[in-house]
From TrEMBL:
Keywords: Cell membrane, Membrane, Transmembrane, Transmembrane helix. It holds the Pfam family T2SSF. It is a multi-pass membrane protein. Its main location: membrane. The chain crosses the membrane at residues 180-204. This is Type II secretion system F family protein.
Length: 209
């Protein structure tokens, strides 16, 4: 009985550790004191659990679409800013131009600013969108300092395009490697049956005969 209780306790402890790692537990304890603590302890815990769950196909497509939109969005924002529009106006124009899912994320930035949230904080919130962490950080800092953002956006657009090309090349190399496996599975048995087996049979026949 004692052994069963110990095993059950160990299994429960392992399950808790898998769902809430030490870093996640620390964040849960610190959540009520966080400066942006608008979320409850349950919301923070649920976010930790979701982060550990396998990504669904729809979530993967959304993440890939958001990451692919970075160069286009940064380029359009740069064009608007160079035309004389402030960043807070440019984001509304670009949000009305691009497709989902990034349009919703950009609309969110514009709505935060319209509601009176500090503009650097509104841009910083974009860091939660896949692919936009560095863009959000640099934009928030530039807006807070009052410096120009056009060249910054152009640089992020170039870097995002370069990263996309590198990722495409890596996928192409991986596809080439994986395409060899079916060929091996098809030709290796035929090679063994037609090339190796007759030789072995002839050697064995000579040795036994």
């Amino acid at each position: 009985m004692t052994v069963l209780v110990g095993v059950a306790t160990l299994a429960w402890g392992l399950a808790v550790w898998l769902l809430i790692p030490p870093a996640g537990a620390a964040r849960l304890r610190a959540a009520p004191r966080a400066p942006d603590a608008g979320r409850s302890r349950w919301d923070v815990w649920a976010a930790e659990v979701r982060a550990r769950l396998p990504e669904s196909r729809a979530e993967r497509r959304r993440r890939e679409a958001l990451m692919a939109s970075v160069p286009v969005v940064c380029g359009l924002l740069a064009v608007c800013v160079e035309a004389g529009a402030p960043a807070r106006s440019a984001v509304a124009v670009v949000a009305a131009t691009v497709a989902e899912p990034v349009a919703t994320e950009l609309h969110g930035v514009g709505q935060r600013i319209a509601l009176g949230i500090d503009e650097p904080a509104a841009w910083a919130a974009l860091a939660a969108v896949p692919g936009y962490r560095a863009v959000a950080r640099d934009l928030a800092q530039a807006v807070a300092r009052g410096t120009g953002v056009a060249e910054l956006l152009r640089r992020h657009a170039r870097e995002a395009r370069r990263d996309a090309v590198g990722a495409a090349q890596a996928r192409a190399r991986t596809a080439g490697v994986y395409s060899v496996i079916p060929l091996m599975l098809c030709f290796l048995p035929a090679f063994l049956l037609l090339g190796v087996v007759p030789v072995l049979a002839a050697i064995l026949g000579s040795a036994l005969g």
